[in-house]
């Protein structure tokens, strides 16, 4: 009579005969201890190999992203020079065409500096333009700039018209170029928090912010030159000041987020943020103390130079 216990009908366990057990045991059981250890080590190594493969792919992707972003930064350096000097040309031309001949030297200097910056930009485009797709925009930028430069040089344009076409060039072609570089290089798409926020500051916040300050500077140059400020000028300046303040707030928020996600750069960014805030406020103070109160006395050139030093610091 068998002593085996009946199988519980609810059980999901499949009984294995003693002969099957013997068959299974005959393989591992027959292996020497060294072979067993070698087999176990090989099996455990499979996930490690897969993991190393995944990490290698991720590392290579990160290297590719960083390399592409560096190409974008190579463009942003000369673009900054172009933007900065065309903004100066706009403001100084506004003073010159408004009747203040003391601006002539600054018009000439900013014109030459813009040409030099465009030459540097062309060098970068010759090397990397096919990858970032910038060549057509740069060609348009150079053509439109030459048209503006010649109109101001020949004095066949009014101060208001000059200011408008300068601003159209800045907020159209130059800003489009900056956005093109930011998108194609991946600077504004970086998945890492600190570099994402810094990229957003460079591509989206600072260009608008500095142009609002630059427009205020250029508008003031004309107002000081003619010695009159109308109600529409006052409204326009208030809009520019408010936009500049909003831009400064966005800048400081971006710096705070970047610092939070990368403590190693916190001190440097905090120092930079303080300098930008101080310089920007000095620009606003120069004009808010006088122009918004209807006071247009004093040297337009002196006020322009003070504002330019502060904007350059930004």
Shape call: elongated
Oligomer: single chain
Helix coverage percent: over 70%
Mean pLDDT score: 83
Structural class label: mainly alpha
Number of strands: 0
Radius of gyration: 33 Å
H and E order:
HHHHHHHHH
Q: How far do the termini sit from each other?
A: 98 Å
Beta-strand portion reads: under 5%
Number of helices: 9
The poorly predicted ranges are 6-25
Biggest pleated-sheet summary: none
Describe what you observe in this structure.
The protein has nine helices and no strands. It has 314 residues and is an all-alpha fold. The longest helix is centred in the first third of the chain and has 65 residues. It is elongated. About 6% of the residues have low confidence.
List keywords for this structure.
mainly alpha
Topology:
Elements: H1 18-28, H2 33-97, H3 104-132, H4 135-153, H5 159-184, H6 193-226, H7 231-261, H8 266-288, H9 300-313
Helix pairs in contact: 2-3, 2-5, 2-6, 2-9, 3-4, 4-5, 5-6, 6-7, 6-8, 6-9, 7-8, 8-9
């Amino acid at each position: 009579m068998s002593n085996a216990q009946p199988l519980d009908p609810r059980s999901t366990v499949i009984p294995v005969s003693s002969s099957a057990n013997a068959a299974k045991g005959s393989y591992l059981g027959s292996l020497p201890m060294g072979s067993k250890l070698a087999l176990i080590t090989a099996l455990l190594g499979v996930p490690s190999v897969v993991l190393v493969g995944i990490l290698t792919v991720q590392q290579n992707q990160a290297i590719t992203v960083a390399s592409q972003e560096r190409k974008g930064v190579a463009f942003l350096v000369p673009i900054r020079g172009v933007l900065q000097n065309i903004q100066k040309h706009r403001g100084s031309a506004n003073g010159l065409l408004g009747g203040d001949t003391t601006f002539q030297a600054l018009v000439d200097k900013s014109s030459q500096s813009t040409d030099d910056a465009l030459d540097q930009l062309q060098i970068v485009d010759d090397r990397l333009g096919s990858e970032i797709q910038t060549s057509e925009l740069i060609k348009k930028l150079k053509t439109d700039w030459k048209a503006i430069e010649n109109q101001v040089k020949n004095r066949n344009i009014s101060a208001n018209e000059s200011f408008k076409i300068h601003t159209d060039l800045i907020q159209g072609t130059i800003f489009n170029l900056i956005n093109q570089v930011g998108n194609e290089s991946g600077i504004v798409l970086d998945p890492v928090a600190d570099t994402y926020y810094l990229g957003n500051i460079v591509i989206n916040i600072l260009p608008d912010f500095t142009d609002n300050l630059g427009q205020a500077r250029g508008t003031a140059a004309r107002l000081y030159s003619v010695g009159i400020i109308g109600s529409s000028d006052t409204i326009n300046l208030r809009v520019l000041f408010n936009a500049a303040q909003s831009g400064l707030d966005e800048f400081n928020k971006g710096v705070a987020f970047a610092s939070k996600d990368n403590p190693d750069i916190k001190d440097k960014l905090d120092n930079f943020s303080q300098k930008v805030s101080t310089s920007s406020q000095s620009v606003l103070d120069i004009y808010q103390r006088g122009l918004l109160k209807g006071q247009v006395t004093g040297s337009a050139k002196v006020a322009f130079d003070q504002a330019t030093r502060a904007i350059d610091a930004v």
